[in-house]
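chain below, 346 aa
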Amino acid sequence: MKLKGLLLLVFLSSTGLVRAQSNFKPGYIIKNPGDTIYGQIDYRGDLIMGRTCKFKSDDNTVVKYFPGDIIAYRFIDGKYYISREINGKKVFLEYLIKGKVNIYYLRDDSGNHYYIDKDDMKMVELPYEEGKKFVDNKEVYYETTRHLGLLYTYMHDAPVMESRIKTIKKPEHKSLIKLAEYYHNVVCYGEKCIIYENKAPLFKIMPEITVGVVDFQESNDMTSESNMQYGITAHIWMPRTNEKMYFRTGLIFTKVDFSGEKCNFKIPCHFEYIYPTGTFRPRFAYGLNFYKLRKISSSFNLGFNLQLNENVFISATSDVEFNTTMLIIPNSFFSYSLQLGMVFDF
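prediction:
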């Protein structure tokens, strides 16, 4: 019961801190032409960044700005947002590339939106839809191509662009930035375009070594027992996809007896959230644990990383496992564990 109470305490503490903490990074706001103020900006997801800018000045005063309050804001050497009116509403557009054509991005409740403009042509959206529809009583997949016509229109002065434009099956950050950069280099000599983009690595792996105790509950195919467990896990980070999400896997050694068949290890396969800044970094994960091929459990993982120095963290983790139906749906309680470890961020 003490262990269960501690698990509950970890859960409440971790979820509360995830909600409370911010993620401030160096940046600046532009209130009026020539009026630039440096400080820190709260880094959030695309949906929030298109609506508000939470700015902390040097005296630690925090002010929330809306698109009608400032002209623009930017993270140092990173993302740049400008205030524009879209469909009668002020928003912050992410400025992806500035050149002979400019590309912008907005995420709102209806999804992802990309926009294009140039000096002598107004801003328009690059529309795109995909899905399924019925044609002659048959369900068929479709994707629109209106964005291609607009790209042709805005880059008509460079006929060489036609073959490249045809490759843009769907508007996305990487493909549109590369297309606009190529166009700029074709029609402009001696002047470079500006790409407002974080040069994050494609992926990164943080290893973790752990040791702890696990308590298995009695069920139809196993007896109740408590054992030590230890192992090594890898937190695989893809920052270009999401700066806070990881894939967690590894090898955890533990002893389990399934109806006389012994298993000595399990392999976790979890999607994980780790708060990216601060000395105390809450984390939680959900996924599956594989005990050879004999047993698959669903797992809910809660804990935190405590920073010791630039590259090393102490970790504390609780893991609650469930028997499942349809592989992922928790059914009945299977085990719980507590683990301590060291995480290395090289």
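DSSP finds five helices and 21 strands in the chain. Residues 201-344 form a domain with the Porin fold (CATH 2.40.160.20).
thats it, cya
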